Amino acid sequence: QVQLVESGGALVQPGGSLTLSCVVSGGIFSLYIMGWYRQTPGKERELVATIYGGRDAKYADFVKGRFTISRDNRKNTVSLEMNSLNVEDTGVYYCNTASPSWPWGQGTQVTVSS
Description:
It is built from no helices and ten strands. It has strands spanning 3-7, 11-12, 18-25, 34-39, 46-51, 57-59, 67-72, 77-82, 91-97, 108-112.
């Protein structure tokens, strides 16, 4: 059974930064394209960024230039560095494969507010 555990969410002021982490257990992590998703208030869950087995990454237009996704295949972790946060980035952030194909974790809450 694959388990996803996200962490690192917090309350941050506009313009601030956060780094989220996701630990994956029970799956062959290195074989999958991994992604970060978010669900913002009033919207459905959306894909934020994906990263292939190496370093190739893709980003949604609304985070391009501000967020950086990375992964460590030895530690089965995927991270999301978020800079220049704005109030529209408020939401619950999740990791999963790019499909997505694993059961969702509990997510981690990011709140951007002054």
